[in-house]
Design brief:
Shape: globular
Radius of gyration: 23 Å
Number of helices: 20
Length: about 550
């Protein structure tokens, strides 16, 4: 009789659950729900205004999703709950919330309902950039060893800068919080009653390493004397490797989910990283491109090298026995959505409706008829800042070459090309540091839906790209981690290597020689713009300062 595992994937805009047959990887049931409060970037639920570059969420949304999508997915599957042996949870990161000693978020309390810092800071909360700059400056001055693991810079998207912002702007919230916890670990806490710190987020987002632990008290004191005991006072729970069991469902959680209280729950994991075993990326030299609203790249290697501008190197960060390197881009799918929502004329919308296709499909169709370079455009892909390799959230987007004759599909293609050029900069940076990339894989909705984009990526990088056959790779990876947490004796697996046998791949995109040559020439111009606006010219930051003055 088949055994099953559940993967729960908490994304930027929604959460989903899948129930998977561990004998063949078949998705037996699935449910998805959008967060009721969505991303709060302008006001809190009570109308309290937010500043520039804020991105918050409400933790009640996570609970509503959890206790809605899991029972729905189980009902759809028709599976006997007794045959469900494991649960895995993945989450966007760093997504952080301040909580009481019992795990209650501060924003649940009436006294803090109007305090922005009491809510969840989503990964793309960039209002802590000044704090990230301060952290980088102090770490560089002190020659902190950890800084080399993060390409020389940490990001405002990570945990510690967000907490520094809380301490600086709302010290009462910092003082009232018994702990700051990643949202993935908070969900594990709700399910098991166990405080854990998942090693993936701790390593990639909170400066922890398997060998050295967290940075020293002296370092935190140098940031701010009030932070000296930050780790001891505000981080609660043991660091737990990916795929290990964090606990089992409490009776209360089991009743709400309709599952057995004996069900194993895996330690949490960052959503992008969860996808690796789901695509079969479990050994060295393979890089997975997770392409969605943003883009995350994860490479497995057997060596540790300092690389400029990467997001981190974490030993055993995803697959035990390997160093996992992370890099990425802060804006991919969001960039294309911005364009279609704000810059496409009504006649294009009318044509798409008449033909029964969406506007992205129409623009892709028109853009596919263009040859590389035909538009005369080149763009920078920094609409939401640069994650790698410049690590600067205050950079912004740019399109060069626009004329009165420029068409929407030309801009659309130029934006796709910009994200591909940004990816090439990242790949070239790895190779220059001596870290070899043998194979590229891709997953995420865009990789399966937009053939033009994937072909452009192959042409720009000059590499074959193998696309996952699974539409829910992060959730599928979480499934595998739940199955490993349960163990082989219970009907699961003893390692992620074993669980990866459930992975499936689909189409392979191969570079087209004539396009590779054309894009090589355009890339030279992209790189000139990249280095000038990213390293030499501060016009983008000056404009951002003027914008902030209006708040």
């Amino acid at each position: 009789m088949s055994k099953y595992s559940i993967g729960i994937d908490f994304g930027t805009l929604s959460g989903r659950a899948i129930v998977v047959d561990l004998s063949d990887g078949h998705i037996a049931g699935e449910s998805v729900m959008e967060y009721p409060h969505k991303v709060m970037s302008e006001t809190l639920p009570d109308g309290t205004p937010l500043g520039s570059d804020w991105a918050l969420q409400h933790p009640r949304d996570y609970l509503e999703v959890l206790y809605t999508v899991v029972p729905q997915a189980v009902r759809e599957s028709g599976v006997n709950p007794a045959d469900i042996i494991g649960i895995g949870i993945d989450f966007t990161s760093s997504t952080v919330l301040p909580v009481r000693a019992d795990g209650t978020p501060l924003c649940f309390e009436e006294r803090f309902a109007s305090e922005p810092h009491a809510y969840v800071k989503l990964w793309k909360h960039h209002a802590a950039q000044a704090d990230a700059d301060r952290l980088n400056e102090v770490a560089a001055e002190r020659k902190e060893k950890f800084l080399t693991r993060y390409g020389g810079k940490t990001s405002s998207e990570w945990m510690i800068p967000k907490i520094m912002q809380i301490l600086r702007e709302a010290p009462e919230i910092y003082g009232e919080a018994a702990a700051f916890i990643e949202a993935a670990d908070w969900i594990v806490l709700q399910l098991t009653g166990e405080w854990t710190v998942n090693a993936c987020a701790a390593g990639f987002k909170c400066l922890w390493s398997k060998r050295d632990g967290y940075p020293s008290e002296d370092f935190f004191a140098a940031l701010d004397p009030r932070l000296k005991n930050f780790v001891k006072d505000k981080i609660k729970g043991r660091v737990t490797p990916v795929g290990r069991r964090a606990g089992r469902l409490t009776q209360s959680a089991a009743c709400r989910l309709g599952l057995a209280a004996s069900t194993a729950v895996a330690a949490g994991v960052v959503d992008a990283h969860a996808a690796l075993p789901a695509v079969g990326v479990v050994d060295k030299g393979k890089m997975l491109l997770i392409i969605g609203t943003s883009s995350c790249d994860v490479l497995l290697s057997d060596r540790e090298e300092a690389i400029e501008g990467i997001c981190g190197i974490v030993e055993d960060g995803v697959i035990e026995g390997y160093y996992a390197y992370e890099s990425g881009q802060s804006c991919v799918g969001d960039l294309f959505d911005w364009f279609v929502n704000n810059c496409v004329p009504s006649r294009y919308e009318a044509e798409a409706r008449c033909r029964g296709i969406n506007i992205h499909a129409l623009l892709s169709e028109k853009a596919a008829k263009l040859a590389p370079g035909e538009s005369g455009l080149v763009a920078l892909d920094w609409w939401n800042g640069n994650r790698s390799v410049l690590v600067d959230s205050e950079l912004s987007g740019l399109i060069a070459g626009v004329t009165l004759g420029t068409k929407p599909e030309e801009i659309y293609r130029a934006l796709i090309e910009a994200t591909a050029f940004g990816k090439r900069v990242i790949l070239d940076t790895y190779e220059a540091a001596g870290v070899k990339i043998d194979e590229l894989y891709a997953c995420g909705g865009i990789s399966r839906k937009n053939e033009l984009m994937m072909q452009i990526y192959a042409d720009v990088t000059g590499r074959e790209i193998t696309v996952s056959a699974c539409s829910q790779t992060s959730a599928m990876g979480a499934v595998m981690m739940g199955a490993v947490a349960a163990g082989k004796a219970a009907g699961g697996f003893d390692s992620l290597d074993q669980a990866a046998k459930l992975s499936r791949t689909d189409k392979v995109y191969r570079p087209i020689a004539r396009n590779v040559g054309r894009y090589a020439r355009i890339f030279v111009e992209y790189k000139r713009m990249h280095d000038f606006f990213g390293k030499k010219c501060d016009v983008m930051k000056k404009l951002r300062e003027l914008k902030k003055e209006s708040f």
